[in-house]
């Protein structure tokens, strides 16, 4: 574990294993804490790098800014991999982390060998899902304005259901609550799924993401999240869809992911 200064921000970074680089990008709200078990498994398949994105838990934000944009997260990932001499990498992103991973692959294709997108939060790809997400975003912003420290809990309850939040052990609820500053920064930012102006992709842009991609969707997730995975798998040139059991917190080291990682780390 280490602290690395990236683009004016101190990021909490963890490395495990050796071999081909594998970068894990967590969702919103979350932290590399939620990837510890998966990272330990992935470390048997390559050099696994995980980190807390700017604004979340153990990573900072610039003192001069209260908002975080999609581009900030993309450039942090790029700079981090360059500092670690870890390009190209297989990039795994879950939820909002999947959106960051997709934008990263589009902006810096030479740094990405392959993509794994675990129900990526690319909600503008489908009009009905975009409308659903827009309504939830407004309710999340209202909840965060009323109770800033409860912003992370509001995301869980509004987007994934009360049962998801209440199923979490108390220590995880406390950890997620500490990521509320990151949630608020993304609500005030641009391009993210929680932003008032989320990123929109044209067909030509998606066609330019030509590296192999595995898109994973869980059978118990909210239907809009599963629909996005299907739509994206149809529009990326070299993507395949992998259905799995369970809910939205898909295992970044599930068997289908490990098979994909081994295939592309070798080739």
Automatic annotation (TrEMBL):
Write down the Pfam families for this protein, in alphabetical order.
Abhydrolase_1
Going by the UniProt record, its keywords in alphabetical order are: Hydrolase
Q: Which superkingdom, per the lineage?
A: Bacteria
Annotated ranges, domain AB hydrolase-1: 21-250
PANTHER family in the record? AB HYDROLASE SUPERFAMILY PROTEIN YCLE, MONOACYLGLYCEROL LIPASE
| Protein name as it appears in the record | AB hydrolase-1 domain-containing protein
